[in-house]
Amino acid sequence: MAESRTNGLTQEALGAIQVAAHELPDACERLLYVKQMTEQAANKVFALIDQLQADTQALRDLAATPNPEALRALADRQQALSTELMLSQEFQDLSGQVINKVVKLLESVERPLHQVLDHAGDGATEAMPLNDGELVGVQTPDKALQQDDVDDLLASLGF
């Protein structure tokens, strides 16, 4: 009976592994696509911020010699750039959907893999470290931008 249960678990695990092996290349492509989208969006945000900073300096210069028409035009440009900056964040929704699909795939394989490893015994459960380089950038929630920070930024831009 124990052997029958073991065979059932092994077959279930092998089935999940086969599905994962078939779907993992697509999942990797999706994650690379998300990486490209986020990189493009980040570059766009930085370019827009550069333009806004240049406009801010122009506003300072105009403040010395008031010209209402030029000030209005510059304010309109800043409003348009701010709107474009906000819209450039649309990638987040799409990337979130892709990431959720990949996570579901990985979760569907996790339990069967653990069952196979448990069945194989203690010697087979030793994890092999992934050493593809150290992660850089914000990695912890305490260093990440909080929603209040984002709200303050948007409020300062007139949103």
TrEMBL record:
Top-level taxon of the source organism: Bacteria
Gene Ontology biological process terms from the UniProt entry: regulation of chemotaxis
Pfam families, alphabetized: CheZ
Record's GO cellular component terms: bacterial-type flagellum
Molecular functions (GO terms): catalytic activity
Protein name (Swiss-Prot/TrEMBL): Uncharacterized protein
